Amino acid sequence: MNTNIKLTALTKTSGCAAKIGPSVLDSVLKNLPKFEDSNLLVGFDKKDDALVYKVSDDKVVIQTVDFFPPMVDDPYTFGQIAATNALSDIYAMGGNPAIAMNLLCFPSCLDPSIMHDILSGGYSKVQEAGAIIAGGHTIADPTPKYGLCVTGFAHPNEILTNSNAKTGDVLVLTKPLGIGILNTAAKAELLTSAEIKEVTKIMTELNRYAKESFANLKINACTDITGFSLIGHGYEMASGSDKSIEIFSDNVPILPKALEYAKMGIIPEGMYNNQDYLKDIFRYSTNVPQEMHDVLLDPQTSGGLLLSMPEKDANEYLSRMECYTPWTRIIGEVTDKKDSSIIIK
């Protein structure tokens, strides 16, 4: 058994950048039958973050599943990132995670101690979320992959979707962009230890604190930013709400060096998939450079929440988030529907 193999050396793509491109996925899903159930309050028809199923007048179940190949070599950290990413969908829907099950694909060439460390990393973040792991499924696979199936609960009135943004709302983003680009640079051994530490810190930060900080504030729509990029998830919010979204590129928080690496062409494959699928739904001002365009399409692993909310509530939210992160900012606004769903200024 080998304990010295780099996990990222066993993968072609990493993190959320490994997800199948949205154009392929859409072409498959549209030909599958649609299930009807009056208790299914949120399904995949509007591309929301998780399903919501009503079990009683005062309780709904929120369920999601997410797993991917490693973007870091340390197995414990990989487990933490994968679990953080999977838990995020529950927070994006306004719920609290309660139960999780492991999903693990593991190469036979690796020592079982590495499996232990991956699972231990996942356990640490589930415990931090106040949830429990109660089982799972493991198979042999030459490419390591890990994630969770997560179940949460909420009152029906607490549920948030990505399709209720209102004209006049401002958009708040809670984590910086550039995660996919920096992970690609890390695989090429271009990052400093400080840069690796910073992007890892972002990927292992639970969105629990971002969710808890909007208690008693008016949130009209919410989603988390993962493999489909800020533009892609913003498009889902805009189209689902029958609105347009304006993004102020100068206000968008971006990890240090992400723009520089993008300018060098250090771009994950997932960015090109996003660009091909989204090229006809957004437009941007001529003064927005190409590297900014690439960052806005960059697939994020364990990214932040994107919130659509009244400006007054947003200002209070920013104040509450100061103790957790310096990255939370107002990055745009919601308008009546225009000729493009996403307008980048």
Give the helix/strand layout:
Elements: H1 22-29, E1 40-42, E2 51-56, E3 59-68, H2 75-92, E4 96-106, H3 112-128, E5 132-140, E6 145-154, E7 170-173, H4 179-187, H5 193-203, H6 208-212, E8 221-224, H7 229-241, E9 243-247, H8 258-263, H9 269-278, E10 282-284, H10 290-296, E11 305-309, H11 311-321, E12 329-336, E13 342-344
Parallel strand pairs: 4-5, 9-13, 10-13
Antiparallel strand pairs: 1-2, 2-3, 3-6, 4-6, 7-11, 7-12, 8-11, 9-12
Helix pairs in contact: 2-3, 4-5
What CATH calls the topology of the largest domain is Phosphoribosyl-aminoimidazole Synthetase, Chain A, domain 2
Number of strands: 13
Strand content: 15-25%
CATH 4th-level superfamily of the largest domain: PurM-like C-terminal domain
Helix/sheet category:
alpha+beta
Tell me the distance between the termini. Answer: 53 Å
What is the H/E order? HEEEHEHEEEHHHEHEHHEHEHEE
Strands across the major sheet, in which order?
8-11-7-12-9-13-10
For the record, the count of structural domains works out to: 2
CATH level 1 class label of the largest domain: Alpha Beta
Calculate Rg over CA atoms. Answer: 19 Å
Mean pLDDT: 92
Shape: globular
Low-confidence spans:
none
Number of helices: 11
Helix content: 25-40%
- The CATH architecture of the largest domain comes to Alpha-Beta Complex
The major pleated sheet works out as: 7 strands, mixed
Enzyme class: transferase
GO cellular component, one term: cytoplasm
InterPro entries: PurM-like_C_dom, PurM-like_C_sf, PurM-like_N, PurM-like_N_sf, SelD_I, SPS/SelD
Site (Important for catalytic activity): 19
